[in-house]
Structures are given as C-alpha cells and as structure tokens.
Amino acid sequence: MPPWVGPVADYLAGGLRETVLLALVCIAASLLAGVLIGAALTVPSRPLRGAARAYVEVWRGLPIIITLYFIFFVLPIIGIRVDTFTAAAVGLSLWGSANTAEVVRGALRSVPRGQDEAAAALGFSWTGRMRYVLLPQATRRALPPLIGLVVNLTQQTSLAAVIGLLDILEASQRSIERLTLSGGSSHAVPILGAVLAVFFTICLPLTMLSRWYERRLR
C-alpha cells in the first residue's frame, strides 16, 4: 500500500463524518419544517397560506449556493455570525423544507375531497382532520418523492465545501493539493473515485427503495 493512502483515508474519514452529520441534521430539519409548512399550504386562512407559499417560492427559487453565500458571508455584515456547519445546515434545510412542503401539499391535495368533507361533517376541526384523516393517507403517497428528496439533499451537502466546511469533498480537495505540493503527484483519480463510491453507496439503496415503494403503490 502506498504511504500516502493511510493519512488520506483518515482525513477523508473525518470529512465523511461531517458529511453524514450534516445530512442527518438537514434531513430531520427539512422533514419536520416541511410537513408543518406543507400542511399550512392547505389551511383555510388566506394570510397563513400566503405566508407559507411565499416561504416555499423563495427558498425553492434561490440556488442553494446563493443561500449558503448569503448566510455565511452577508449576515456577518449585520452582526449575525455563524460557523460553517451551522451556515450549511441552515441553508440546506431552508431548501429542503421548501421542497418537502411542496411534496406534502401535493400529497394532501391528492386525498379525495370527500374524506375531508366527511370528517368535517363528523365534527372534526381542521387540526383533527389533518391529524387523523388527511396526513395518514397522504403519507403513503408522499413517501416515494420524499425518499428521492432525501437522496437529493444528501448529494447537495457537497455544496457546503464552497463556504469552507471540511466535508468529504473539501477533505478530498485538500488532500489532492497537499499531495501535489509534497510529491508532485495529486493522486486525484483514486481520491475522487473514493468520494464517488461513498456517495454512490449512500444514495443507491435509497433510490432503489423509492422505486420499489413506488411500484408497490401501483
């Protein structure tokens, strides 16, 4: 085994831990906030529905990289300073929650209207109808696109490298630079190949799960 492999592997392992932690935080925050905002898109109150729609359109419409730059580089100008991990987690969660909200809204709208009307006739409030009637039925419809969104969000964590977060991509880039400076050879192919293999190993099972569940629903 070449002598550079061990140190690089340890460095990439640290970056992988950061990537996995970031992905888990963003997925949890996106699902929690997205379900609430998606439900708000169906409320009778027009102002609340409008506020939820504005949130979705803004954060879905902005490129993630612009959001990351704004949080990390612009907010400090007005006195709000955050570290790279927090900036990446907030930026990715804003995008993820907006997309989750749209998935949830579509799933809720796909439930037959008669279900909602029947629950209302039985005296259920909007909250009760949402909790006991609409969300349980919408969950089955929302699962395949939500799994796909989880895969996409995991892949998008690589963008955190642009603000300096030491994730697996940033760790690989620094390793290539160090090897180039110290030995004249970057070994970029095996290093980036390892990064590719990691993302492929994480995302492929989720993609296959989404396709399997979608076929089952049919």
From TrEMBL:
In terms of SUPFAM superfamilies, this protein maps to: MetI-like (SSF161098)
InterPro entries tied to this protein: AA_ABC_transptr_permease_3TM, ArtM/GltK/GlnP/TcyL/YhdX-like, MetI-like, MetI-like_sf
> GO molecular function of the protein, one example?
transmembrane transporter activity
- Give membrane topology per the record: Multi-pass membrane protein
User: Per its record, how is this protein called by name?
Assistant: ABC transporter permease
Q: Output the Gene Ontology cellular-component terms.
A: ATP-binding cassette (ABC) transporter complex
PROSITE patterns reported for this sequence: ABC_TM1
Q: NCBIfam families attached here?
A: HEQRo_perm_3TM
Broad class of the protein's primary localization:
membrane
One Gene Ontology biological process: amino acid transport
Record localization: Cell membrane
Transmembrane intervals: 20-41, 62-82, 188-209
The family this protein is said to belong to: Belongs to the binding-protein-dependent transport system permease family. HisMQ subfamily.
Which keywords are on file for this protein? Answer: Amino-acid transport, Cell membrane, Membrane, Transmembrane, Transmembrane helix, Transport
Chain ranges of the ABC transmembrane type-1 domain: 16-210
